Amino acid sequence: MADVIQLLSDQIANQIAAGEVVQRPASAVKELLENAVDAGATEIQLVIKDAGKELMQVIDNGAGMSPTDARMSFERHATSKIRNINDLFTIRTMGFRGEALASIAAVAQVEMKTRQPASEVGTRIVIEGTEVKLQEACAGSAGTNIQVKNLFFNVPARRHFLKSATTELRHILDEFTRVALAHPHIGFRLWNNGTEQYHLQQENLKSRIVGLLGNAYEKKMVPVDEKTDVLNITGFIGKPDSATRTRGMQFFFINNRFIRNAYLHHAVTQAYEGLIEKDAFPFYVLFLEVDAARVDVNVHPTKQEVKFEDDRMMYSYLNAAVKHALARHNMAPSLDFSLNNDIQQLSSVQKPATDRQNDATRSGYLYNTFTQKDQAHFIDSKDSMARWKGLYEIANTTAHVPKPEQGETVIQSQVGKLHTDTDTHMAGSSRNAIVVQGTMLLTTVKSGLMLVHIRRAQERIWYERLLQEWNAGTTPSQRLLFPLSFDIAPQDAVLLNTVLADMARIGFDIAPFGQNTFVVQGVPTGLPAGEEKNVLDDVIEQLKHESPDAVANRNDKLLASMARRLSRNSHAIQQEEGQQALIDELFACAQPEYTPDGKKVFTMIRKEELDDMLG
């Protein structure tokens, strides 16, 4: 029987490795930028064309390579950073696996020019799909200039699965931002389709954050600086009012390497508990310096996930550091034992008690119990009901107050209030609908009871109303007296630009104002004040997680997001007319039973079920 196991060719092996290392253009950008950082560069340029599909070029002024090293850098498992097994567990450099350039060259056309500062001439290498086409001496600047053209030119299926240019560009900006944040001492420039998008000087971390993420963060950052025996934590966190409903402005760096870690993220968000809304995400750029032997960076091909020797210790230190920073800058809540000035002005505080009121209080059960020695904890079970009745009678004595002088407000007595409440309750019981717990509406129908979720009902009503206006092209817009401007992260601005026309169709008048700033001049009629930024955050978050084939459904999602924001009005159901109108409008909808995202709007409790409940 013939042997069936054979070694893969280098070309196929490299393409398999590329499947892990090079998932999209941004993956190649990350590896090239990290190699430039490891080369000791002080100036790095990134040139992008067609979201990296046509060209990705990285130019640095680092150490460069000799002709032999230049050729060896494209071999599998070739690296200058690991000499023995112990080096693998004490890694401080960025790129170290030795497969990046080999993997990139396996699925793209690569040209590299490199020269060491001490050499008079450099080396030029051209590779296509692992095949070396050319290697020659050339002139050039000190450092390395590498071009990656036509990514996945020899793997059409992989190229077909790339997303839109907007999405791929956003991922490239994400990788560029992470590397640039980690190395503020290095100057960075980014060119996109011939336009310079970033020109970052060598600067401190705060200036780098503002240069990358926008001026909006300049006055919203709180410094973090904690030094311990096992962990150093530095960086910046955002003030509570800078929290947004979009992810993406959270950056963790372990030994200057960007990582993702949900456990550490929870440590930060838990420190903000009570300061931000539950569905908001705080901004932070935090650097954790830890002994390389205490962290394993080899658990994921992209090196963005790590494992710690002691996760709980890291959590505790980080949580305490963030809380300390917030408290140090008066962001954390504190107890205020001083009496509010408005309360001090109340007549019940200012005016002394009358003799009649004092006598009534002294004759009461509670007063006697708490003034007699060793009686505060004692409850007499036999006579408790009678004594509580005595309390009620004492409360009723407030009804016998002198008639107020003319011009004074008549204060309703406790007895009168009791009768009024009873009458109101009896009147409410005869109505067709009552509000339950402030969030639901209970109404009678022929077959039993119907319980309606108020906000979800409003959401369904608004969605169908907006959908009708969208189809008719008549969505009204309300002009703002004072236009609002918002600074948005560069990668988010790229996404928002793609949906401005759709936003205009649902009533938003938004226009770009500078590189990453947008001005809102009009909003849909009925949108509560202060919800403008929340809507933009919802739209951006939706676009971030949009699948390639979801563009056709984008309009529905935009309308659903708007309906959620417009359904926050609880005043409409305080009156009987509003309650009945809500029910009537709900059942005039084409699909009254579910919200646009599939949640149940109402439920029925049939008479048979009620009978069963009552036995």
Structure description:
This protein is of the alpha+beta class and 615 residues long. 37% of the residues lie in helices and 21% in strands. The strands form 5 sheets. Strands 5-4-3-6-2-1-7-8 form an 8-stranded mixed beta sheet. A 5-stranded mixed beta sheet has the order 9-10-13-11-12, sandwiched between helices. α16 (454-472) crosses α21 (576-586). The protein is globular and about 105 Å long. The termini are far apart. The relative contact order is 0.07. Residues 334-339 and 394-431 have low confidence and may be disordered.
Outline:
Helix content is 37%, strand content 21%.
Describe the secondary-structure layout.
Blueprint (H helix, E strand, L loop, with lengths): L9 H12 L3 H14 L4 E7 L5 E6 L6 H6 L27 H7 L2 E7 L6 E7 L2 E8 L4 E7 L6 H5 L4 H18 L4 E6 L2 E6 L4 H9 L7 E7 L3 E8 L11 E5 L2 E3 L2 H10 L12 E7 L4 E2 L10 E2 L2 H18 L12 H4 L2 H4 L4 H8 L2 H7 L12 H13 L17 H16 L3 E4 L3 E6 L2 E6 H19 L4 E11 L2 H8 L2 H6 L3 E4 L4 E8 L7 H13 L9 H13 L9 H11 L15 E5 H7 L2
Parallel strand pairs: 1-7, 11-13
Antiparallel strand pairs: 1-2, 2-6, 3-4, 3-6, 4-5, 7-8, 9-10, 10-13, 11-12, 14-15, 16-17, 17-18, 18-22, 19-21, 20-21
Helix pairs in contact: 1-4, 2-6, 6-7, 6-17, 8-9, 16-20, 16-21, 19-20
